[in-house]
TrEMBL record:
PROSITE patterns: PLD. It is an enzyme of class 2 (transferase). The gene is ppk. This is Polyphosphate kinase. Mg(2+) binds at residues 403, 433.
Amino acid sequence: MIGNELLDAGLGDADDDDFDLSEAFDSQLPDNRYLDRELSWLAFNQRVLELAEDPALPVLERANFLAIFASNLDEFFMVRVAGLKRRILTGLAVPTNVGRSPQEVLADISADAHALQLRHADAWTTQVRPALADAGIEVMSWDALEDDERARLSEYFQAQVFPVLMPLAVDPAHPFPYISGLSLNLAIRIRNARTGRQEFARLKVPPMLPRFVDVSRHGDTVRYLPLEELIANHLGDLFPGMEILDHHAFRLTRNEDVVIEEDETENLIQALEAELLRRRFGPPIRLEVGDDMDDLTLDLLISELDITAAEVYRLPGALDLRGLFDLAKIDRPELHFPAHVPTTALAFQPPEQNGRSDIFAAIRKGDVLVHHPYESFATSVQAFLEQAARDPHVLAIKQTLYRTSGDSPIVQALIDAAEAGKQVLALVEVKARFDEAANIVWARKLEKAGVHVVYGLVGLKTHCKLALVIREEDGMLRSYSHIGTGNYNPKTSRIYEDFGLFTKDEQVGKDLTRLFNELSGYAIEKKFKRLLVAPLHLRKGLLRLIEKERRNAAAGKPSGIRIKVNSMVDEQIIDALYRASQAGVPVEVWVRGICSLRPGVEGMSEHIVVRSILGRYLEHSRIFMFANDGDPQVYIGSADMMHRNLDRRVEALVRVVAPAHLKEITDLFDVAMSDGTSSWWLGPEGEWTRHSIGEDGKPLIDIQERTINAVQRRRRARAVR
């Protein structure tokens, strides 16, 4: 039975009939073999912060990393911390792989998060803000402005800000107002001049207005004032006849995790819309306040918001540094990373200058591997679907959509194909976190155009990135397939690092045809030839591949495992890697975010190395490489090593077989794991150490810049030929 599964999964041959995983689990492993996943996530965000603190990076990119840190931490609280608290309050079991209670985990999260937020605030106040000022971009305080500047800003306030402000008093006739999640607010104490009574009011800083207001511009020198400071210095206009006693900024984070019992609802879309409405009113989980807030105001907020003192974050300087995303867009090329325009993959370059490439003809010549954003998404994935939409020989298009934009050319291509009379199936994952509302909107737009829209399987998110085009050629039907590691999103494709494989391989086409039929039907049960598919077969397939490397090492044969993922959390996969290491298998893990694996522990993981790379692009591809006694097996796809990806999502990995593609991926991994490449190294106790400067004092290799240059060199070499 196991041998048949290996054959069906493309993992083995008839000699594997006696293949049994049970003996691989005989060896004992210590109880404390995992790192805490939540603390590991905070360590990832610390690495983002270290980029913002790096004076060698362009200053506007440093501001952008500060904004990314803030946005990341918001989502961490809204989902991860909120989820832990919800499960504790409802009495549900809280998964923890580190032998500590959920309450202890929350206490550690709070301690680390408090320290990181203070460090984040300091990085802005003492490092990035002064560096911006040195470059001619000043973020001012009201007190530092000239009289004429204040006068102009007062006029701006009256014309553009005052009309949209909504001060809300709190008194016996006005209950404490609802505070929306992530909104920036002013808590204001005022005294009624007639009665002498002190009152409280809340004022929301309008999110639709620019966070940084122009003060002056002279060439490349620009000066800004934070919007909340402008408002705070005009409170008298909002409360005429009242004495302004004090004001302080505050910001609330709410539980915004969406929970739907799919097997108990008849209409997923209606249930999701109701849950999204409920999410707006989720319980508070974090209160950020200025460090100058008085105790009277703070006590009122804690009481009215029903929040604990441990959930209060006192921070110096400005709150909500997501606003720095706007500053980071300032058009000063010398303050950004050098401009990079993605090149068209060699296989898809038109034969004549200014000509149009025939995507299908290129794929017929052989598999095409594209590497975004170094190679263009627009001239590969987008062109593939647009050509399919207008090609009269194309009969059908089937595609999964997890995250994209409503104005996306991908969505438009599917609409154009349906309107041209082709059969079009779009499997839309409406449960993609924080994209739920947008996905519902454009899913309905697709339905109105005649696209067959399905929403996946009950209880599973469809996370795989698949597109299948059926084309009639010489009286026969031929399949053209795309399997990717990233979303079909033209916007994120410019900043997310991902791979995509185009192939006309008949077996891949059959695999995808069956998989799409099952996705639009009821269950994923069948096995596939060139794909590994979750939730039923991906975990098993990877465990067998890891175990095969362990056996090869034990037999003295060549062995090796290389894995690139966003997260390495799944205990069963980690234990399998530990056992492989115990047998002497060299294991290299390239992880962007969370890693619960402890490398370098004697007797358990001394043959495991873990590296992390962060930079101008977000490392997003997933790669699985196995030495296989000299016959390498390499897979790319959408799955991270997490419980949800392996057990509660539809994921797909495809095997890469072309020698040139195997070499390209191998070369990339060689550079990533080299001691001469800038990266963070994980230690056995969960500490990450940045290695960016060599012993000679020179910067180490930036793998992303190196890849940009390598792709451009290949294109120039092609042009010369």
